[in-house]
Amino acid sequence: MSKPFELRWEGDLPGSPLQIWDGITKHGAAWIWDIDYEPRVGGAERGLTSKGGTVTAWEPQRHFRTEARRDDGWHNALDYTLDWTHLSYVHSTVFEPHEYAVQADACIQHTRFYYHSLGEYLRHFAGRAPHYLGLDEVPGSTADVLQRLGVPETAGPGDRIALGTIDYRDGTMVGIRTETELVRVYGREPWGWPVGVGVHAFDGAPDERAWREKVAA
Fold first, then answer.
1. What count of other Cβ atoms lies within 10 Å of the Cβ of residue 117?
2. Which of 28, 154, 182, 193 gives the lowest tally of CB atoms within 10 Å of its CB?
3. Cα 181 to chain center, whole Å?
4. Cβ–Cβ under 8 Å, residues 34 and 28
5. Which InterPro entries does this UniProt record tie to the protein (predicted)?
6. Chain-wide mean pLDDT for the chain?
């Protein structure tokens, strides 16, 4: 039987309530990946879950919720409550018992990174059209990928490198901010998964070929 999981995150975000609302509901490509929601209760969700879901709460700049369910009992729900610029987020889902520890830890670590990235987008790029490039199963280890990107082993948040500025480093998760992009390195080795790289570009679509060569050279 599936085991329920709930994750909560909350914090103050930069920008106006409208910018935060739009970041969550319209501009997933700016900080997580391409997701589309129809802006109404009963509207369709596309891109977040494999078979899509449904918007179940839509109160602009106050409350948003999206849910997805399957006949086998699986469900996934994201709930956002905005009090001016303070966001309270709840993620509810289920995991199989044999993979619960791995999935729960991965979800926690990814969520921390995602909402840091939302803050970076709002602080530095709000109002600019986002373009997302996701590179999954990048060859090599996290250390290999970071070396290719010119990130020293000792570099931490605030440090400058050739590519830009390190804005996040927690375990195997590393964020780099350039003048036009947020580059996210998802070191997923702790869970037995390949490294992923996300590029959120704000000055036109990123060059996929160039980025694949950069991270996999």
1. 21
2. 154
3. 14
4. yes
5. START-like_dom_sf (IPR023393)
6. 96
